[in-house]
Each structure stands twice: as structure tokens, then as C-alpha cells.
Amino acid sequence: MFNRHLRNLIAQSVPDGRRRVAIHKANPSCLTYIPADAVAPPPYIESLLTHSGVRRAYRLVKRIEPFTAEFPALPEGTIEITGRTDVGLIREHNEDSFLFGDLAIGEKFSENNAGILRVEAVPAILMVADGVGGAASGEIASSLATQVAFDSLRQFSERGALKGAVVIADSLQQAVLAANRAIHTHSRENRVHHGMGTTATIALIIGGMVYFAQVGDSRAYVIRDGIAHQMTKDQSLVQRMVDAGKLTQEQAERSEHRNIILQALGPEPTITPEFTRDRLRPNDVIVLCSDGLSNQMSAGEIAAIVNAKVDLEAICEALIDRAIETGAPDNVTVVAGRYTAPNVD
Questions:
Q1: Mean of pLDDT values over 28-54
Q2: Could you give the domains of the chain?
């Protein structure tokens, strides 16, 4: 039943000229992007939205959190960050990118020069992007996303604009939108890369808070007191079905359609990122990862590895090694940061 509805969803929703973008099955593990206008109009989805609970979930996906409530002033802390990526066991190219950096001085590390960064009492960024659209296109899209987002937030930081929850959230949104415009423009100007895109998961640490931005299905976790808390929601077809009550979380994790995402940076001129935030606590570990990791490991398994090791490089290495042990059909990328600060509780 679900398979038939899925086929109808795609067939009825994606214009003929765009099905090359919507259906990408060269490798079953590859991300598949369905254009934004393919989500709401189909009769099946529309019928789901007639139910009040589902309609509320749909609105939650689309709305942007206002960030109007301020948290009490918190002491600035320190975060140490590192990252690692691996092509996996099946793919020939690595289309993932990551970046982490110090927004105050502009120091940054990526998949090309990964190291350990220690950022004290100033804004820091962690980001993972999973490219869509084929080897060269995916690599370009994910790399553009990380670089443009960093540069945009760096400019806001230099102007002293990263102050206050509302302004910070708006700056983060503008950085995501700038990345989308850059990728979309590059795709339009270079036909060989037409339709390219990327997921994007960003964590911005500032003033004892972490702000997350989400497009696609890469993930962010905060491991706190031994438990991994998922801070982002996948913008995927199976997550939409979970929200609609048509799939359980366990069924979604096993679904052959979990590679279908409903939003990505690049393919469309406009996007709707999702935002969340949290107050950081001493010894919190932030983990950002592509679905090459989250599809292979549960949140509990991620927490167990983080809890077993202190060294951040060892954590990243162990997470990727575990994904490879389970088959690693996709590229695997992880960025991890440990936050320390005076205990304010």
C-alpha cells in the first residue's frame, strides 16, 4: 500500500522535465530529491492533511521558530571540535563536506584539512552537508554550502550582529538562504550540474547556546548525561509518513524509501529551513553527521561510543569505523564538538 502511494506521489507530482532530479536510483543508497512542489498537491498527501493532527505536524515542518524568548545571560564557554569523513564501501566518490570554524578570527577546517579547533568565548560553527546529484555535482554543492554559510556568518560576526536570539536566528537563516542561492545559481549557469543540491545541518554556538539549522536529512545530536538527543528533524518522505501516523519510527528506519528527501539546498530558488536551539551544559557533546552514519547506527549506539571515549578524534574514528563495519553503503561524515563551561545550574 505504501509503495503504491509513493509511486502515485512521484508520478502525479513531478513534472516530466524534472523527474531526472526527483528519481535518482543509480545507487539505492543515494539521496533522492523531490522538488518542494511535489509534496503538497498530490491527493494522497492532501488527504492526509485533512486530519487535524497531521495538518498541525505539516505546519510545524513549514513554520520558522520565532526565537522571541531570551534565555538568561550565560557565561561564555569553550568548545573543542574535530571532524572526519569516509567514502564508505560502495560509493566511488565522496559527495559529503564538513566545516567547523571560529567566526571571530575566521579560522576554519574542512574535509580537506581537518584538525582540532579550540574556540573560547566566541561564536563557532559546525556544519555537515551531503551532496545530491552525482559525483562532481554533489561535491561542488556540499562544498559551496559549507563555504558560503561560513562566510555569511563570519560577516555577521565581524559586524557584531550575532547578539540576541532573534538576530542570531535571522543571521543563521540568511546564511542558509545565501548558500541555497549560490548553489542554485551555479546549477543554472553550468548545465552539467543542473539539479545539483545538498543537505545542510548547521550548529552555531554562541553565548552558551547552540542554534541549529536544518535542510534535508543530515542530523544533529546533543549527547548529554549519557543520552543522545536528536536536535533536528529529517526533511524526508518517511519522516513525513511518521508524522502522519502512517509509519512507526522503527518502520521508517528500515524503509527502502528513507533516502528520499523533500528539501535540499540548490534545486529550488527558495527553501524553508527549520530551526531549533538549546542551552548548552558543561560536557555536552554535539555530533553532526550525514545519513551515511545515522542510517547505520541508532542514537543509542552513537551515545555509547561518545560516552566510551574522551578524545574527539577517537570518537569520530570509532563512529565511522562502526558505520563501515555495518556495510557503509553511503559516504560517512561526522563532526563532533565538546563544550565546557562553568556549571551554571
A1: 39
A2: 78-233+270-340 (3.60.40.10)
